[in-house]
Model the fold of this input.
Amino acid sequence: MGAAEAGLDDAVLDLSGESAGEDGTDTSSPFFVSRKAAAVLKHAILRQYVVPFASKVGKYAPNGRVVYLDGYAGPGRYEDGTPGSPALILDSAASLAGFRQLDCYFIERNRRSYRSLSALVAEARDNGLAAHALQGRMEKHLDSVLAAAQGSPLFAFLDPFGLTISFEALTKQIFGARDRQGTRGRYATEVLLNFNANAVRRIGGLLTSTKENPGREATLSAMDAACGGDWWRHEFLESDDNPQAVARITKGYAQRVSKAVGAGCWTVAVRNRAHQQVAYHLVYFSRHRDGLWIFGEAASLAQVEWRRACLPPDHGDALFSLDDTFEEEEQERQAHWVKRIKSNIEDVLRERGDFTVGQCHAEVMAGVLGEARSRHVKTAIKELYKIGKTGCDGVGNVRELRVTRPR
Ligand SMILES: C[S@@+](CC[C@H](N)C(=O)[O-])C[C@H]1O[C@@H](n2cnc3c(N)ncnc32)[C@H](O)[C@@H]1O
Done:
């Protein structure tokens, strides 16, 4: 399935924040924002997505085994005890354990972080989970993990501080190592990676900088390697400003990878606060339409968690609870999405006639793609049914619903 076929390559879920350090964490500690607001979204996506992914693809995999690779794992937990990606994935593995084996490989270069990671992994193994902590560079361990993943579905999470994995390693080594006999079940291959906007701004700035910089050429070449060529230089120089450069380069990157590996993609902009500059994009690649649909659902749910995490702390002395206004705002958002979806559905019915939701995903979700999810589509159809604008009652699996003109 190509990116265009997936119909989702233009989907940019523009979600959150600003003032982030290289790792996407907020270095200025503003009062209203959790220090790890940008991490909240990526973790919420992982938590929302990996369980349905493994449940689905593991159904057709030998022994229900699904391989999970965290190539830049970090210590596993933050110092305050908050789970990092390894701790939360091990929780997912535990919740799947009765019917799937999530075989987890965590790679971490830094010795101190690795020590904490390996303690977490040892505890998980004592509890009967399949988990491995590997110390060293991701590049050094990648081939052996890919060999271990042969014959099983694979989900790779690649979350470095700065530049992402090289284009070559992603397209040829990871996707290239995977059996192309099919795209689902044991052949499923999915990657979620952090494409760092700060790195784009910093490295792009070197193109026009007049300052003496001995590392300039090496840094620009490293960016070429990550992007699969120097095309990004042109994009940067042609852009009106940094936000436009980040958007164009991220989109160009996602499209090039999609094309090279025959996958569809989602691009999720992650900020530390609403209306602020993007800290990084999460870019997701899947060769299967189901994965793209389920990821969209997970990203929508994760955004609710992110919006809640951005609430100012509730000190209990306010006249009204901030949570109350949060729920009200969420209701308003949802009402707006449903209204937009209803209008989209009427447009599709008028222009094309009867259709199945799964086949017109992008049209049905136009304007709210990546924000709304299945339940909002169902509500929209049910409301249209009630007022006689469709013959479909909105009951059943939403992707399979046949939306018909009124009889
Ligand atoms: C952004 S942090 C990971 C955070 C983690 N994914 C989470 O969500 O909790 C990036 C980590 O990658 C490690 N790292 C950087 N380069 C690496 C490499 N080439 N191979 C393996 N680990 C690397 C760093 O030491 C750091 O702990």
The chain has 14 helices and ten strands. Residues 322-352 form the longest helix (31 residues). Residues 23, 39, 72-74, 84-85, 107-110, 113, 137-138, 159-161 surround S-adenosylmethionine (CB under 6 Å).
